[in-house]
Design goal:
By secondary structure, this protein is mainly alpha-helical. The chain has 3 domains: 2-106, no CATH class; 111-184 and 306-346, no CATH class; 202-298. The protein is 80% helix and 0% strand. The chain has helices spanning 2-22, 24-36, 40-54, 59-63, 66-76, 86-106, 110-113, 115-146, 152-189, 199-203, 207-224, 228-237, 242-257, 273-280, 285-346.
């Protein structure tokens, strides 16, 4: 009986997908129209989904791409009696914009949030380059003319300036290599497992953030009528963490062996018990709502913790830069004070 029900569900799902593919060009056009009204990253992601639909997306890959699934879900949930009218397509496109907007507020934005301290660090680095090439040689020449013994701190600053003049090209190479590596990462990842826009943000994805995306993906699949067993597997294939993919596949195998048994915890003995409790809720609208609430809580918690660490890092960076500048200025003026004192006493 369970096998017959599963086959009927798959048939109904395939039929709904075929209906969507019948209007894919019109829907892609609606997504592009909405994308024109959006800025930056949301507009880019909607255009990507539009191109992906036009190229001939398939049902299996859609179930494994949570963002594209969230965009297509309103149309796939329509019953046979509900026609895919222009109004329905336009409304689904607007919902898709909300899905992308939600993604932009939940995904890691480490680089963007560090824009100010990184900009300050870039400015200080530029000043250090100018000092090393134009100012430091003048101080070195002046100190050599007077032949005074320089303090250790002053020697350290002048030696650092010499190192910058010799090795500045290494910094340029590192920046170019990092940019090329990030570009290559974007091409290979293809956005299938992460919504991060750069490698740094991708590496900053925490376990809590990955579990939130996983729970949200499972809730979307359950809304579509996919069985819990298949929902766990498809969400795991889209996970950004290898351990989460392995755990999801293990749950899928357990579910296949014992379809009527209760699913074991995703992370036994872990501190993420809320997700385990949500997965134990019987399959119903309550389970879908519980998973979405857990996902929202994990996203909010992860964002709060991330903002605290970034704020602390920004303050520490600002303090370090300030101390370094203060010591550099003191180290250069100490010999000048000694020179002036010597000239004054000689008179």
């Amino acid at each position: 009986m369970d096998g017959a029900k599963s086959n009927q569900d798959e048939l109904a799902l395939a039929e709904r997908w075929d209906r969507l593919m019948g209007v894919k060009d019109q829907f892609a056009g609606e997504l592009e129209s909405v994308a024109v009204e959006l800025p930056g990253e949301p507009s880019r992601r909607l255009r990507e989904c539009s191109r992906w639909l036009r190229r001939g997306a398939d049902l299996e890959s859609t179930l494994q791409r949570r963002h594209d699934l969230g965009i297509c879900l309103p149309l796939m949930k329509l019953s046979r009696d509900e026609a895919m009218t222009d109004a329905a397509l336009a409304e689904a496109a607007r919902i898709g914009a909300c899905v992308i907007g939600r993604d932009s507020t939940t995904r890691p934005q480490f680089i963007r949030k560090l824009a100010y301290p990184l900009g300050m660090l870039f400015g200080v680095s530029l000043l250090a380059m100018l000092f090393s090439f134009f100012v430091s040689p003048m101080f070195e020449e002046m100190f050599d003319e007077f032949g005074i013994e320089l303090p250790a701190m002053t020697n350290l600053v002048l030696a650092s300036a010499k190192a910058v003049r010799r090795l500045w090209w290494i910094v340029a190479i590192v920046i170019v290599v990092a940019a090329i590596a990030n570009w290559g990462w974007k091409l290979t990842s293809n956005g299938s497992r992460s919504s991060a826009t750069n490698w740094v943000d991708y590496r900053m994805i925490s376990n809590r953030d990955s579990l939130a995306s996983w729970a949200w993906h499972v809730s979307l699949l359950l809304q579509l009528g996919v069985s819990q067993c298949e929902a766990v597997k498809n969400a795991g294939l889209d996970a950004s963490k290898n351990w989460l993919r392995r755990s999801s596949l293990e749950l899928h195998r357990c579910c296949q062996k014992r379809p009527d048994a209760e699913l074991p915890p995703l992370l036994p003995g872990s501190r993420y018990r809320m997700l385990g409790k949500a997965m134990q809720v019987p399959e119903s609208d309550g389970k879908i709502g519980m998973l979405q609430e857990v996902a929202d809580y994990y996203w909010d918690r992860n964002r709060s913790v991330g903002d605290w660490w970034i704020s602390s890092l920004s303050v520490c960076l600002l303090c370090v830069v300030g101390v370094c500048l203060f010591l550099a200025i003191i180290s250069l003026f100490m010999p000048l004070i000694a020179i002036v004192s010597g000239l004054t006493s000689s008179k």
